[in-house]
Automatic annotation (TrEMBL):
Residues in the signal sequence: 1-20
Record's protein name: Ig-like domain-containing protein
Keyword Amino-acid biosynthesis belongs to the record: no
Domain Ig-like: 349-416
Keywords: Glycoprotein, Membrane, Signal, Transmembrane, Transmembrane helix
Main location: membrane
Protein species of origin: Coilia grayii (Gray's grenadier anchovy)
Residue ranges with Acidic residues bias: 440-455
Amino acid sequence: MEAQRLVPFLLLICIGGTDCHLVTKLMIRMTGRSVRFEADNLHVAYYYVLYNVSAEGDLLVFNTSQPGGSHPKAGRVSFHGFPDNFFELTETTLSDSGEYRLEGRLCDSIAFQRNYTLIVCPDARINILQTPLNRSVQLCGADSKGESMTTIQLYRLGGDSPDMLILDTTTSMEQLPEDLRGRLQVDPNSSSVTLHGVTEDDYYQAYECVTFQSGQCQSSKLHLLDCERFTLYPRQNTRLTLPCNIKPTSPHQVYWTTPSGNVTLSPEDSSQAPPSDSQQEEKMYMLNGSQTGDYSLIIPSVKQHGKYICNHKKRLVEYEISMCWQFKSTTATFSNNETVKLDCGLNYEVQWFRQRGADTEELILDSENKTVLLPEDLSGRVDTSSLVSLVIANPRAEDSGVYTCRVKLPNSESFKPALCLEHQFRLHYEDPYGIHSLSSEEEQSADGAVPDDLEKDEHNSI
Ligand SMILES: *[C@@H]1O[C@H](CO)[C@@H](O)[C@H](O)[C@H]1NC(C)=O
Ligand SMILES: *[C@@H]1O[C@H](CO)[C@@H](O)[C@H](O)[C@H]1NC(C)=O
Ligand SMILES: *[C@@H]1O[C@H](CO)[C@@H](O)[C@H](O)[C@H]1NC(C)=O
Ligand SMILES: *[C@@H]1O[C@H](CO)[C@@H](O)[C@H](O)[C@H]1NC(C)=O
Ligand SMILES: *[C@@H]1O[C@H](CO)[C@@H](O)[C@H](O)[C@H]1NC(C)=O
Ligand SMILES: *[C@@H]1O[C@H](CO)[C@@H](O)[C@H](O)[C@H]1NC(C)=O
Ligand SMILES: *[C@@H]1O[C@H](CO)[C@@H](O)[C@H](O)[C@H]1NC(C)=O
Ligand SMILES: *[C@@H]1O[C@H](CO)[C@@H](O)[C@H](O)[C@H]1NC(C)=O
Ligand SMILES: *[C@@H]1O[C@H](CO)[C@@H](O)[C@H](O)[C@H]1NC(C)=O
């Protein structure tokens, strides 16, 4: 163990392979990885042999003069000849740890010799770490003993490229990939490596960190996960699009989990087109984002509350859908000089919406968001001190429209989204001289924008 600890530093003295006596090269690998025992090509050798040096003596692992030797490890060992000249041991296991000796031979004489110490580290379970963009994250060194002389190796795993050793404190960091330059901070004292400024690309990478200290090998695997959460309060039976954008160059296994089961891109679904026959019209489907990255879920008619999650190996987008139920619908008429009072009937977190004519619905008041400003045409005519009712002074014909109060009541079960209730008012102007007045029935059939699923309809004259 004493020798092993010194090795990484002695190694630097051995340059060119001309005289490397008493130098053992330390190699640290994770289980399952492959390792190379490199010969040199400065010395002429007829053949090469690799020995496993154990207390019981030398064990021949591979003799290039007799390929496919009898040793049980032979199937995992291969020799790559000139100009590379190395033995490769694949799928390393913990029991492969030990001393090895590589010899280049000329007939019965040894042309050169090189000793290796192989440490195979136990594999680590992958840890998932949720990290928002731009943050710093520690890739290595969660539980360091604070001793000096620590070897740190950092691998970048998978993604679109093969596993790659990106940092090794026994060598220089020259081969650090472009996107990591200036972002990795190494502290050998605490054997920690910190990645600064997490980018979107980092979510598509995993990291494996191997630390070797006092003969002890530790490893950890980490992949960063971006998890976004949203709570939405759609109106029941309305169309809803839940956005989910995954970087198009990353592996594309994306699917949705919903309260009514999984939604996947089934091969029979034509891409980006809703199912055609009328029976399927209500069925939700996801977009094929293999070109665009857009894997949004389209819900033609939202009926079920609960969690809708866009799943990708590296990214989760979670939508908590809490349906907004219309508990009351009221029709009211008004004429000039009458103050209009729309009584919501519930008071908690209150929002008021207005929809006039063909305009889209606008949020006009929000008890939780003071930056929502009353539209100019209403300012000075509406008292905003209490939102339990909407009181419009000096109403005008242009005030006609659909007014909705939406109330979010806390759910008795904690962590559940709020209960959302709506009271809708259809406000009609009635000309006091009866010239332009419309009956409410005519108004309904003329105005297609008014939802037709009214359960309780009251007609009030204010
Ligand atoms: C390799 O180790 C052996 C002992 O196992 C030693 O005799 C030999 O000198 C070492 N060779 C080198 C090049 O360090
Ligand atoms: C390697 O194999 C060749 C051919 O079978 C044999 O002559 C030689 O002695 C072997 N060398 C060692 C070191 O085992
Ligand atoms: C080396 O020898 C040791 C002890 O005999 C054994 O446990 C280990 O599996 C061997 N490794 C290889 C690669 O042959
Ligand atoms: C991340 O930082 C960059 C540069 O400092 C900045 O332009 C960007 O808006 C930040 N992004 C987020 C999500 O904070
Ligand atoms: C590492 O430890 C040594 C000795 O304790 C100290 O001198 C040095 O400043 C430390 N380096 C860092 C980066 O903390
Ligand atoms: C949904 O799909 C994922 C991935 O294909 C699968 O692991 C999971 O078991 C599925 N769940 C259900 C309820 O079918
Ligand atoms: C998604 O679109 C790609 C090309 O845009 C196509 O190759 C693939 O088959 C589509 N997948 C499904 C399930 O429709
Ligand atoms: C509104 O009230 C004013 C003064 O009280 C009156 O002059 C006007 O005629 C009224 N308008 C209507 C339409 O009743
Ligand atoms: C508050 O309202 C403003 C303006 O409508 C909007 O931009 C903002 O996102 C709202 N904030 C919250 C927390 O909903």
